[in-house]
Amino acid sequence: MNLRGRNKVSAEFSMSSMTDIVFLLLVFFLLTSPAITPEALDLILPKAKGKTTNVQNLSVSINDKQQFYVNDTRVSEQKLEAVLNAKLNGNENPTIILRTDKTVTMQKAVKVMDIANRNKYKVVLAVKPE
After folding, report:
1. Cβ atoms of residues 61 and 69 within 8 Å
2. Can you give the C-alpha Rg of the chain in angstroms?
3. The whole model's pTM is what?
4. Under 8 Å between Cβ of 105 and 65
5. In a domain, 92, yes or no
6. Could you tell me if residue 69 is inside a domain?
7. What DSSP line would sit under 61-82, residue for residue?
8. What are the phi and psi torsion angles at 55 (to 5°)?
9. Which long-range contacts (CB under 8 A, 24 or more apart) does 53-56 make?
10. What is the pLDDT of residues 94-110, one digit of tens each?
11. Overall number of domains in the chain
12. Strands 122-125 and 57-62, sheet pairing
């Protein structure tokens, strides 16, 4: 009497679905890795839409004559840090809105950013939407 089963179980394993998954993961990581650059600057960019907060902000403007203004008051370049410290003293999350004319040299804007970095202020660069 022959009692062997008719259905034989195959001991083989198909790797085709596993290679598809690995290939998709590889493509995903290759496409997203250029978006993450460690050399990028950590900037807070203004948004056109969204919620507004009631945080006390301070505006620093630099006109085309390289003159500094804190809110509407003209300030010399040497006294800028002292004026910013006096006005932002006691604020929980002090934020500076930097407005510059398009002809202003980058060195002037970097000076304001350097002052903000030393004193742990946030800087938002104001831009005109296109």
Report:
1. yes
2. 29
3. 0.56
4. no
5. yes
6. yes
7. EE-TT--EEETTEEE-TTTHHH
8. -85, 140
9. 55/93, 55/95, 56/91, 56/94
10. 888 888 887 888 898 89
11. 1
12. unpaired
Cα–Cα distances in angstroms (integers) from residue 6 to residues 9, 10, 61, 82, 91, in the given order: 10, 12, 87, 91, 82
31-84 confidence digits (pLDDT tens): 877 655 554 434 444 444 544 454 557 888 888 888 898 888 889 989 999 999
Domain range holding 105?
Answer: 57-125
Domain assignment present for residue 35? The answer is no
Burial profile 20-45: b = 16 or more Cβ within 10 angstroms, e = fewer? eeeeeeeeeeeeeeeeeeeeeeeeee
Residue 94 falls within a domain, yes or no? yes
From the CB of residue 67, how many other CB atoms can be counted at a distance below 10 Å? 15
Return the amino acid letter for 71. Answer: N
- CATH for 73: 3.30.420.270
Residue 113 CA to residue 24 CA, distance in Å, equals 42
- For 70, the token pair is 């804190």
Joined tokens for residue 105 = 């040299």
